[in-house]
Amino acid sequence: MSLFDTVPPATGGAVGGVAGDRPAADAAPVTPTGPLADRLRPRGLDELVGQRHLLGPGSPLRRLVEGGGTTSVVLWGPPGTGKTTLAHIVSRATGRRFRELSAVTAGVKDVRAVIDEARAALALSSGRSRQARGPVPEPDLRTVLFIDEVHRFTRTQQDALLPAVERGWITLVAATTENPSFSVVAPLLSRSLLFTLTPLTDDDIRVLVRRALVDPRGYGGRVRIAPDALDHLVRLAGGDARRALTALEASAEAALAKVPAGGGTAGEPAAAGTALAPGTEPAVEAEPVVEPTVTGEPAAAGEVPAAGEGPAGEGPNGETEPVGGSEPVAGTAAGPREPAAAVDLALLEQSVDRAAVRYDRDGDQHYDVVSAFIKSMRGGDADAALHYLARMLEAGEDPRFVARRMIILASEDIGMADPGALGVAVSAAQALEMIGLPEARLALAQAVIHLALAPKSNAVIRAIDAATADVRAGRGGSVPAHLRDSHYQGARRLGHGDGYRYPHDYPGGVVDQQYAPDELVGVDYFRPGQLGFERRASARADELRAVLRGGARPAAGGAGPDAAPGPREQGS
After folding, report:
1. In a shared domain, residues 81 and 160
2. DSSP count for the chain of H helices, then E strands
3. Cα(146)–Cα(133) distance, integer angstroms
4. Distance CA 172, CA 190 (A)
């Protein structure tokens, strides 16, 4: 039996619902006609783009792979961030048996079948170890079980994994796009390391696109992409590697289809999965292009930088040129040559059926659209606010940034006029974390409509700004003695708590009693308006102040809300 031979399943047959049942070395076989994202799947950690916080030297995940540990892991992150790829890399690097289940189709029976098979493999491995003679190493028959979309498993299905994980019969690698705190049972989560994967950066996406253009597993230098098309592709990806490569594949295939038969560069390699003409010798496959994980890192001495690693669209003399357009390919004459197929912005838009949104996340357009979004909700125009929301999401804006701005607006521009608005905004942000895009756009849109239609008031920000201004000006003084902490020994001797009146002992739950420091007695920070719930809040505040102050007149001075206008009154 070779290093990666497998033990027949304990059930004697195929496991239902098993997405993959194969040795580690043969995991995820790549076919020449497979999707581009599958053909370019990284074969090791050094080929993986992004997730630098997990893959740096000495990081937990790298130690798990290189050290051959047995700790189970949960990979949490949005689609296209490398969860499935990491599972395959862990299995391949450790040389263990690899089994894959899809939580969409598998059930408890399938889980138990894989566990029984893993136990049988361990028993066989243990028996061989006792009989082993000589220095020949025995194969590692421990099992890595990858479960994709683990959040789709019921509690019963997840509980079925607990004994195997706890006793080390399997090393579980579970992937989920939903918050594990809500979607993974606590006992399983406590027995696993949780790794949070983040969306890829724009630079990461550019590295992937360049690699796809020049790597023999991709287009081998036969396709180039215009700089503005590359920028649009990066925006469309939104940090999702799979989405970027899928869009590139659609547009690249469309570009190749426009090239007349025999119109390509002499000696070009055929497209992956394309049959060569009779009598044509296949091009010699080039070595895979290996790019540094960290973009912009200088090449080692004597190392030729991977094609396309410079700034997007920048030629050797600083001129603008298409990306992926002048790299020699194996099987061709050495020296620059022009790829036969070109992807421009119009072709990309046509291929993905999505127009380019003029939006720069780091420039003026970003701030202009965000400002218009906030001001549209503040001004009550739900339709305009929805337009700007869609514009930001389509351009690849971080939806969490959008949700945070909505939470701020709920307090700053609505406040007590509709106290429920803050809960609506927070719920939309939580829904975004739990389900992600594209479905979470519904929750965001619902919240935008609510915030835009809600009655408006800036009394909250004016109140806290006025209170802050007094604190910064040194106004305040000591806490009244009857309000001070009196739970510790000796506090009463100091007079702390003496004379405090417990409000629940009085009619209406309120009693004439001083709460503010002496210097601020009678200062009104909260001055509600008459819109929405604030009409009731205003009446209630006046009623309480009359009782609390026992008819006392407001103190002279004090900043008050009119003395310190909110910093956003003149802007957004």
Report:
1. yes
2. 21, 8
3. 33
4. 13
Residue pair 81/240 in contact (Cβ under 8 Å)? The answer is yes
CATH number, domain containing residue 120: 3.40.50.300
Query: In the structure encoding, which two tokens stand for residue 431, read together?
Result: 């829904």
Most distant CA pair in the chain: distance in Å? 105
For residue 438, cis peptide bond before it (omega within 30 degrees of 0): yes
Tens of pLDDT, residues 21-55: 444 444 445 556 688 888 888 888 878 888 888 87
| Res 524 pLDDT > 80 | yes
Measured between alpha carbons, how far is 84 from 241 in angstroms, rounded to an integer?
A: 12
Residues 6 or more apart whose CB falls under 8 angstroms from that of 483 comprise 497, 500, 515
Residue type, 291: E
- Asked if residue 178 and residue 32 are part of one domain, the reply reads yes
Other CB atoms within 10 A of residue 126 CB? 11
Does 374 lie in the same domain as 347? no
What is the C-alpha separation between 256 and 126, in angstroms, rounded? 54
Query: Counting beta carbons within 10 angstroms of the beta carbon of residue 514, is it exposed (0 to 12), middle (13 to 18) or buried (19 or more)?
Result: middle
> Do 334 and 211 belong together in one domain?
yes
Q: What's the domain range around 229?
A: 200-271+314-356
SS3 156: helix
The verdict on 124 and 97 lying in the same domain is yes
pLDDT on residue 42: 87
Q: What is the DSSP letter of 314?
A: B
Query: What distance, in Å, lies between the first and last C-alpha atoms of the chain?
Result: 69
Name, in order, each residue with C-beta under 8 angstroms of 427's C-beta and a sequence gap of 6 or more. 443, 447
Q: Is 467 among the domain residues?
A: no
H/E/C letters for each residue in 411-478?
HHHHHHHCCHHHHHHHHHHHHHHHHCCCCHHHHHHHHHHHHHHCCCCCHHHHHHHHHHHHHHCCCCCC
**471-485 tens-digit pLDDT:** 888 887 887 877 777
Relative to beta strand 170-176, strand 143-148 is parallel
User: Average model confidence (pLDDT) for the chain?
Assistant: 74
Tokens 């033990």 appear where? 7
- Residue-wise pLDDT tens digits, 354-401: 555 555 555 556 778 889 999 999 999 999 999 999 988 887 788 899
User: Would 465 be classed as within a structural domain?
Assistant: no
Element (H, E) at 341: strand 341-343
The residue that leads in pLDDT, 113 or 500, is: 113
- Final residue of a domain: which of 419, 453, 487? 453
CATH number at residue 395: 1.20.272.10
CA–CA distance, 478 with 311 (Å, rounded to integer): 60
Write the single-letter amino acid at 451: L
Backbone angles phi, psi at 544, to 5 degrees: -65, -40
Does residue 468 sit within a domain? no
